[in-house]
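Why run this: before we spend reagent on co-expression, it is cheaper to look at a predicted model of the complex and decide which construct boundaries make sense. The entries below are exactly what would go into the expression plan.
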Amino acid sequence: MVLVKLEKAKLACHWTWNTKDETCGICQMPFDGCCPDCKIPGDDCPIVWGPCEHSFHLHCILKWLNSRQHCPLCRREWHFN
Amino acid sequence: MPSSPARRSKRRSSSTQRKRGSSSEGLANNKSENSNRQEQPSNKKLKKDAKKEDASVDAKPQNLLTLFNKEAPIRSNTEMSVSNGKLQQNNQRDASSRSSFGNTQKSASKLVIRPLASAPAVSKDFPEQVWTNYLRPAVRAIQNATKVSFSYEELYRKVEDICLLKLGSLIFEKLQEEVEQHVVKQINSLQGYAHDAETFLYGVNKVWEDHCNQMKLVRSIFLFLDRSFVLHNAPVRSIWDMGLKVFRKYLQQNTEVERKTIQSVIALITAERNGENIPQDLVKEMIRMFLALEIYGESFEKAFLDASNEYYKNEGNVLLQQYDIYTYLKHVENRLSEEVNRVVLYLDRSTKAPLIQLVENCLLESHTVEILEKGFDSMMDENRQEDLARLYRLLARVHQLDQLKKYLGAYTKNTGARIIHDPEKDNELVQLILDMKDKVDSIVSNCFDKNEAFQYTVKESFESFVNMRQNKPAELIAKYIDQILRTGNKGYTEEELEGTLDKVLQFFRFIHGKDVFEAFYKKDLAKRLLLGKSASLDLEKSMISKLKAECGAGFTSKLEGMFKDIDLSQDIMKAFYESVEWKQCGNEIDLSVVVLTSSYWPQNAHEEVKLSKDLLKLQNAFSRFYLNKYAGRKLTWNHSNSMCTIRANFPKGQKTISLSLYQTLVLLLFNDADALNLKEIQEGVGLGMKELKRTLQSLACGKIRVLKKEPMSREVENEDTFYFNKDFQDKRYRLKINQIQVKETPEENQQTTERVVQDRQYQIDAAIVRIMKTRKSLTHSQLMSELYEQLKFPYQPADLKKRIESLIDREYLERDADTPQLYRYLA
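The model came back. Tokens follow.
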């Protein structure tokens, strides 16, 4: 008979954005933080990826996409992954 | 019988006529007439008629009559004419009666009325005689309190006669002379009178009373003088006033008596102040005498106030040394009410204001600082509300509340500073400060009339002392709140806890470094939420809303985010239980995971740990599920905040134990081995040595010892060996082993503080750039003063200098080439 049996575990973990870069290529703010228009990072200021695997703050890339439809870093065509 | 009065009066009138005609003294009313009048005292009208008839019938003494008319305005001419008409009738009636009489004696002789041969004159020495023979003896008799040998009525008549002769002035002078002589004698008689104040005053009072009584009597006798001569000669005073004037004159002339009188009165009052019984009526009489003589203001009051001033000045100096402040203040209050009573009892009302002011001045105003210096702090220390209220009342009278306020502020500040600077009291600091705030608040509202200026001073003082020590108070407040929310309702209702939180928040309000508070609060909140230590979520949420109301939404957004994460995690877990990943694991272990948004939660130092196989499988399953659901994220496991429940089969009974993940992992190792040394355990669990030792300590050295340690000691050493405690027994079925780690480690504290410092640096940078961007160029001191307004937390000027240097390095700013004091903003 086992001496000690684990019955219940309550674990805690942090989630962060799984990005290659540390900072947003548009606003140069860290992905851990938020775009300059937001105050609170996290779900309210999400990060998006393009097919080129470059990532930006959603709010930043939306502004950029108003004028052009390609990635601001590699100029490949942009659509949301 | 209408004819009878007329007839009688006629008879009387003829008799008077005869008398007037014959009597050398003319007008003198002799006794017979007197008695005649007394015969019919009630029938005044009749008497009047008779008199009028009198007048018309003897028209002869014309001069007298006119004099009569002039002197007594009642008998006006019109009346005369009317009465003449009546008289005519009477005459007719007389005539008819006479005629009927004459019917019997046929030869009726005609009555002829002729003027007197010579007008009746008054002898020159008439007033002199009256004075010498009647009035003077009477006055002297009155003055000597012997029997007056004339009837007052008679005397009155004499005076009236003299007045009618317009000789009033003469007699007035004589009377005054007489009064003067007597008064001088009386007052001088007081000169050598007893030395004892009371007896002397009785003497004075006797003289004064006698004088008054005599003057009253004299006035009654000389009433006609008052009504005729005095009334028509404006500058002449009435007899009564003359009496007072004379009395005053000679009293003042005899300075010795006057001085002694005043001094004696003052001596009596002083005796009363010293607690002796004095004849208050006597003093009252004396004061009334002063008032009547109109020497109260100039002679008495001044001397009295001087003496009082001297007395109270002395008393203030002596008693302040002799008494403690409480007794002294009580005494002052008694004194004030005594003096008010004194005014009511025997002094003149006009004295009240200066007298009270004088007492206040001598006993309070000039000693305000000394009183406060000596007594205020101890009153506050001992919370003597009654005395404090008294102090406030008294100082309010003398407009010294500003001083009191100053002392209150200083006291609050000093006491608070003493508490705050004492590191030994850190544990109870918040409670101490809250108690103190309660106390001071209750004193202000109970004793200081809820004075707003005082409340403000208290607030200011709190703010200043609370911020005397940087950061620590903010940290301690956060900890205090943690204690409340964690241990929760130990005998307290929710309302009471809410009340305590409100109070703490008041304290929090004074703190400048709110960021320090936030950091510590966040850390504690994280522990409460993750380890399930929170007493009540409602209470937590209400605290958050309080903080939000206090500091704005920005302050609490992260804290609210933490609650959101907890809620969201529950939803995620529900979804996870439905998922394929969960079903693949087999449901032996009940798993729940909280996924935290890293920016909301305080970062913990990452500890490597080797999970047990089962647990690792579960963890990976969850990771797969989560990352599928939320693309673009990664998970970092934070095991230091993980909790587990195990079932332990001790030979002496089965127990359910809740403990931390680290503790669990250590215990799980003993499923496969009976004894493990420290090194083996570390290999099995993979924890850092420090953390591991702490964990082992909690398992083997705490209250609940599920492990046995060889050798036994309180500390875990490298050579120790551990066994599963087969002898373990406990009455309870469910047990909880606390982590020692739950207590804040110095490193954690350090980290939190460093994080705050880091945050502040950014804030300082931002503020400098903001200011310089608008101003373009500023001198160092100008920049500093602008920063002072913008920055909401305490800082050292040296810190600011460092930040300015750093900004210059990063080319946000430059120093002016000519004046090194001047900074320029670089666009």
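The longest helix of chain A spans residues 58-65. The helical segments of chain A are 58-65. Bring this page to Monday's planning discussion.
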